[in-house]
């Protein structure tokens, strides 16, 4: 205790111990446990202040260009022969037990009016299946298509608020047909909130700091802290597919993507979709012209002129929209994760200025500010792209209508809400069945993930008249 206390007092954080003598043993243990998570508070606060300076500097004037052609491919114009080759390679790796899947599922459904984890949400499909169930069943179907007795490990990253509810949801539903041993839960970390100038840690109570999830970039530290690198090695996993829970159309463990990335021996690869319009507010996968490395930039970092610029084919010059859907070579992760989490150049802190209720140690009361008074920090998963040589980075463009429909907004929203997710999944189902020769008698017809992974195996519906609503 004295060692921890001394470190924090040396870092000018004596206010954290103002009520320490009044705390119970349990409360003291809780506070010390939180403080112990930051071995060097002086260094942490220094890094926070650097992040504050960076966020207000001219650093955003960096120059970017689209990724070089050799780093890119598109399922929209790749030959069917090449797509089959990639798929066969991916399926072979899956059959040999060399593929694992990481599901990012730390978020709650608060924007959707739900206190449950977002993966528990039901967008209103005829089957009434949750996002978790749809994705687990796609994984089960993929195992069947790979014709293997091996299971694909599913690593689910939760957060402190969602961990128990997520585990209970899977247990209650018998893991949606997966084996319990193939589903591994682990928590992302948290970062303490600080004052606006980055000099003081904020207290939630006399015995606890204010903390918030460390962002999707916290994945790498969570992999390290939870021993996943060792688990990958133990299970013989060499390739990882990572995606976010909110994408209702995601191809979990996509063998085409795995085959594309592994064939090209990429360290990291990413999926993108084409921007809908020049002004769609999405992050973009680009090349940093100074470093010649891949990067992700915000919509606001591109001038209006460049947003509207077209290439000779009439497509947007900057069009590779980031959907946070990545491939990782495990050997590369084994080498780089320790470096990424120890070097702030690769995983910097990003600041979000917020109104944060906090404990005033002088009065002992909770202060509810009217203006932003503090900073919550997060890390971005794509910041590590800067450590990848361009020839080891791949970008695969996929069809948005087939693979990307995120659940981000409340019911009734124009885009990316439950209604659009439902409509997009049913539209995909209709395309698959119509292509197979089925006659659809309505729009509420859903293809179950257990029936088809990506449109295959529907020949039996040739000439069938399918009423609505229905799940086939």
TrEMBL record:
Entry keyword set: Nucleotidyltransferase, Transferase
Domain of life: Eukaryota
Gene3D superfamilies membership: 2.10.10.100, Spore Coat Polysaccharide Biosynthesis Protein SpsA, Chain A (3.90.550.10)
GO MF entry, a single one: UDP-N-acetylglucosamine diphosphorylase activity
A GO BP entry: UDP-N-acetylglucosamine biosynthetic process
Coiled coil region boundaries: none
InterPro entries (alphabetical): Nucleotide-diphossugar_trans (IPR029044), UDP-sugar_pyrophosphorylase (IPR039741), UDPGP_fam (IPR002618)
Top enzyme category: transferase
Catalyzed chemical reaction(s): N-acetyl-alpha-D-glucosamine 1-phosphate + UTP + H(+) = UDP-N-acetyl-alpha-D-glucosamine + diphosphate
Record EC number: 2.7.7.23
Pathway annotation from the record: Nucleotide-sugar biosynthesis; UDP-N-acetyl-alpha-D-glucosamine biosynthesis; UDP-N-acetyl-alpha-D-glucosamine from N-acetyl-alpha-D-glucosamine 1-phosphate: step 1/1
Similarity comment: family membership: Belongs to the UDPGP type 1 family.
The protein's name in its UniProt record: UDP-N-acetylglucosamine diphosphorylase
Organism name: Ogataea polymorpha
